[in-house]
Structure prediction request, 232 residues.
Amino acid sequence: MKMIHQYQTIRRAGALLATTWLLFGASAKAATLWDGMYLEVIGGFHGLTSGDVKQAGATSEGSYGGGFLAGMAIGKELTPAWSLELEWFYRSNELDTLDGGVFGGVNDGDFASTNLMLNAFYTFRSESAGEGFFDKISPYVGLGIGAMQELDIDMTVLGVEQEYSDNWVPSAQIIVGAIYPINERFSAFGELRYHFSGSSTLEAETGGLEVDADYNGYSALFGIRYSRTTSR
Prediction:
């Protein structure tokens, strides 16, 4: 059931990306409002830090395996240095172990979320960029605020699958990266991120006791940008 849910989520994201791309391309020549607009696709590794999973006053310590993050963004370069973007992404990690508490010994499940973020970036541009590869690389920093549209943790306890979820959980992220222009329209970039959401209260899908779970992590990403102007 969980794999079907993940497939449907990614399929909807792909359909949204395709629609956005078509609208972006069709409107690119409509007005100067579109100058500086860009569209990005991203993907890469996502890790979750170990954290508490609490139920009925008892605390389990959760540890998680490596996972993935995939998404897209649409943004605008306001100046050569500053840009804003709206970003959507999906991330998921396998549950390695839960030690102690009512979930002690559980080692089968996953922790996943869909995220909607507003990011602001500042790019450090060289005023005397040369023609060499490293001369064209522009580092940048960013800050994002937004919410997890859906946060859910699944686990199998004594052979029974249990699912807990929450919606519209506030979150934030810090981003550092660098971008390289491939040509006038396309650029490649890499990023390191730290995501913070704190602890959330997730309700049981079957009407049982709720759980409080920490959800903070980090990502290493790669992306491609299509832009109407030169990239940041």
Observations:
- The mean pLDDT is 86.
- The chain is about 10% helix and 65% strand.
- Residues 2-227 form a domain with the Porin fold (CATH 2.40.160.20).
- The chain has one domain: 2-227.
